[in-house]
Write a structure and sequence with these properties.
Blueprint (H helix, E strand, L loop, with lengths): L16 E12 L12 E3 L4 E10 L2 E7 L3 E3 L2 E10 L2 E4 L3 E3 L4 E10 L2 E5 L3 E3 L2 E5 L2 E3 L2 E2 L6 E3 L3 E5 L2 E3 L2 E2 L6 E3 L3 E5 L2 E3 L6 E2 L10
Parallel strand pairs: 1-3, 2-5, 3-6, 4-7, 5-8, 6-9, 7-10, 8-11, 9-12, 9-13, 10-14, 11-15, 12-16, 13-17, 14-18, 15-19, 16-20, 17-21, 19-22
InterPro entries: Pectin_lyase_fold/virulence
Length: about 200
């Protein structure tokens, strides 16, 4: 079902404080032929969404919008979950907008795609990725795993591996802002791990 008042999203736009917890339940867009394109969640400025052990899959806005699973303009926390098989123009899984904060804690982000850049994650605010894995995502242009457009991305005890980009920054691409790396690894990405060179501390190749 699509929220007909806001057809880009499966759910009404989140403006308050919402927490969804489960024991590994999955929220998914149907793969049936004829299913319209929509993302799963949108968080408004001032809104807050916490997903605890809730997997997100199949969100699709690759026709020209951002954040296949979640477009966050407020506060987003995802814990102990998998974000997979989502697609968008930018930020196949999550788009973190200016002034927004996204926290990923023990999350696997895999198999997401962007028709332009930011195969898994695109950040223009504050993005914290802790004890998580960003693996096997793809972007047609830059940032197969993570695209940092502005703001701050913090990679803490996480892995960014096996992602691919058509142009550069298979693991992480930094077009602006800053990316920090504390005990994380960015390896095995194609055509390179991080770009531009030196944009991610400790990242080579």
């Amino acid at each position: 079902m699509v929220n007909t008042d806001n057809a880009d999203n499966a759910m009404p736009v989140i403006t308050g404080n919402i927490r969804i917890g489960s024991f590994s339940a999955t929220i998914a867009r149907s793969t049936a032929v004829g299913t319209p394109l929509f993302r799963l969640f949108s968080v408004a400025t001032g809104g807050s969404l916490t997903l605890d052990q809730v997997n997100l899959t199949g969100g699709n806005l690759d026709n020209g919008d951002v954040g296949g699973a979640v477009d966050n303009n407020g506060s987003l926390t995802v814990a102990q979950a998998t974000l997979s098989g989502n697609a968008a123009k930018f930020g196949g899984a999550i788009a973190n907008e200016p002034g927004a904060t996204t926290n990923l804690d023990v999350v696997t982000v895999t198999g997401n795609t962007a028709t332009v850049s930011g195969g898994a994650l695109v950040n223009v605010g504050t993005l914290n990725v802790s004890s998580s894995t960003v693996q096997g995502n793809a972007a047609a242009q830059d940032g197969g795993g993570v695209l940092n457009v502005n703001g701050q991305t913090n990679l803490v005890s996480s892995r960014v591996t096996g992602n691919s980009a058509g142009t550069s920054g298979g693991g992480v691409f930094v077009s602006g802002g800053h990316v920090s790396d504390i005990g994380s690894t960015v390896t095995g990405n194609t055509p390179n791990n991080c770009a531009p060179a030196g944009s991610v501390p400790g990242c080579t190749g």
